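Researcher: We're teaching a course module on how sequence relates to structure. For the next exercise, students receive a sequence and then see the predicted structure as C-alpha cells, so they can try to spot secondary structure elements on their own. Here is the exercise chain.
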Amino acid sequence: MRLFHPPKNGRLNLRASSLPLFFAIAAAVSIFVGCQTLPANSAQAATPVAARDKQPVKSGQDAAPVKARDKKSPKTPETTGLGQSRGNRISYHAFLSGLLAEIAGDNDRAFFYLERAHEADPDSFTISMELVRLSMERNEDGKTLARAIDLAAKHPENAEAHFLLGVARARNKEFEAAARSYKKSLEIEPGEKAVYVALMMLASQSEKMEIAEDILKSLAVRFPAEPLPRYSLGAIYAEKKEWDKAVAEYGRAAEADPEMAEPARREIIRVHQASGQTAKLIEVYKAMLAEDPADIEASAGLAEAYLAEKDLPKAKTVIDGIIKDSGGEAAIIRSAGRLYYGAGYPDEAMKLFTALAERPDSGPEDWTLAATVLEDMGKKEEAYKIYVRVPPDSRFYATARVNAASISKTAEDREKAYEAVKTASGKGGAETNLYISLAAVFEDAKNFARAEAILKKALTEHENEPHLMFRLGVLYDRWGKKDEAIKTLKQAVALMPDSPEALNYLGYTYADLGVNLADAKALIEKALEKKPGDGFITDSLGWVYFKMGDFNKALEILKKAVEIVPDEATILEHLGDAYLASGNAAKALETYEKALPKQEDQEVKKGLLKKIEELKKSGKTP
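Model: And here is the predicted structure for the students to work with:
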C-alpha cells in the first residue's frame, strides 16, 4: 500500500543521529592528537622525525636526512656518509643538486637529480628515502609503492623504511598491508608516536571494520596509557551493535585520560539510547546529577528516559523541577513541551504550550507550537484560531497560514497560504516541506494543476531535491497521470535509492497497474529490507503476489500486514480480495465489512460497498 503524509512544518523532533564510524575515529584523532595528525597527501608529514633522529648509521646504510625543507644548508659528505668513491661522489653531487632544487621549489628538477643519485648509489638509504618521499609529493603512488617496497627490503631493520612503506600502502588503499608495515616499524621503534598516529588514521580510513578493529586492539595493547585506541574501539563496537563492549571501551578511555571522561560519557549515553537500555541510561544521568545537581542537560535526559519507560509521574517530577529552577523561562518550557510531545504525551505538551501561548510575553513560535499540538489532538478549530494569530512579519507566518488552510479547506485560506509561501520564497527561498504542505492543500481541493505548479516552482529553487521529486510523482499518481507518475517516481528513486517510501510507492504503482510485476516485487522487497516490519510495505508485497496470481502467498502476507496495521481500510480490503480469490467468500465478506466503516475516501467506499452487495447477492456467503 502506498502511504504518504505531507510533513507538518510544526513537527517536533528530539533525536540527533550519531556520527558515522569514520568520523568518530577521525574526529577523535584530530581533536586529541592535534598537530601530530598526518595529512593524507603529505609525504613531508609521513616521515617520523623521532625515528630519523634516533636511527643509527649501520654498515652500508646512510644516516636518515632531516627533511629538505627544514635544511638551512646542505649536509657535508662527512655527515651524509656520501662521497667516499667516484660513484658515491656522483651520487652526492646529484643528491645535493636535488635538495637545492627542492628548496628552490622545483620538484621536477629535484626528482631528476635524485633519480641520477639513486642510479649511482642504489643502496643508499638516504637517497632512496628522499626519492620515496618526493614521489609521494608528486602523487606517483604506483612508483612510490614500488620504491618503498624496495627500500624496506634493502633495510629490513630500519623503522623509517617500514613506516614509509606503510604510508605508501595506505595511499594505495592496501590497508591490511599498510597495518603490517606500521606494526613492523613499531616493533623496531616501540615508542614512536608518529606511527601510532598513522595507525589511528589508518583505522579511520579502512573500509573494513575488522581491519580497523585489529589495528586499534594492537594499539591498545602497545600503548595502554593512550585513550584514543579504546575510544575508537568503542565507536567500532557501537557500530557493530556490541553494546556492552562499546560501553567497556569508552569507560577504559575515560580511565586512561580524565579529559576523555566527558566525551566518553556522551558516547555511553548514545549507546544506551541506541540499544534501548533505558535503565542503564537512567543510572548514568543520576550519576551526572549527583556530581552536578544543576546539570540541566542531565535532568532533561533523565526526564526523557523516564518517559521512554512510560513512568510519567517521575518524568513530571523532573520536568517540573527544571521549569521551577528556570523561573518559568519560556525556552525551558518549550523544551519541556517538546520532550513530552516527542515521547508521545501530547496532552502534557498541550498544557505547557497553550499556557505559554496565553502569556503576555508569548510570541509566534509559542502560538505555532500550541496550534500544532492541538491540531494533532484533533482540536482543529482551536488550532485554527491560534494559527491565524501569527502576524505576517513572523518567520512562522507561512507555516501557520499553510496549516490553517489545511484545516479550513477554504479557497480564501488557500490563497493566503499561497501568498505567504510566495513571499517567503521571495525573501530567499522557502523550505521544501513548506512547499510540499502547500501543494497538499491544493491537492486536497482537487486543484492538481496548482499543486503541480507549486512543486515545479519548488524544484527550480531546490533543483533535483529528492523529496520534492517524490511528492510530484505522488501528485501525478493521484491526478491519474500514471505515465508521468512512473517517470517522476523513477527519478525520485534514482535520487534516493535507499528511501523505503519511494521504493514502495513506485513498486505499488506498478502492482496496482498490473505492469512490471517482477520490478515491483524487487522494489518492494528492497523497501522492506530498509524498513522491516512496516505494515504498509508488507501490504504492497502481498498485493504484488495477488496481481501475480499467487493468491495463497498473497493471503499469507496480507494477514501479516493486517496484524501490523489492523485498522487500515485499504489493507483490509486487499485481504478481503485475497480471501475471495482463494475461494473463501465468507471471510472475504467479513473482512470487507470490517473495512467499510474505516474507509474515509467516499469514492473508494462506494466501490467497497458495491463488492459487499455483489457478494451477498452471489449466494456464496451464508
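Model: If you want an answer key for the exercise: The chain is about 70% helix and 0% strand. The CA atoms of residues 589 and 612 lie 6 Å apart.
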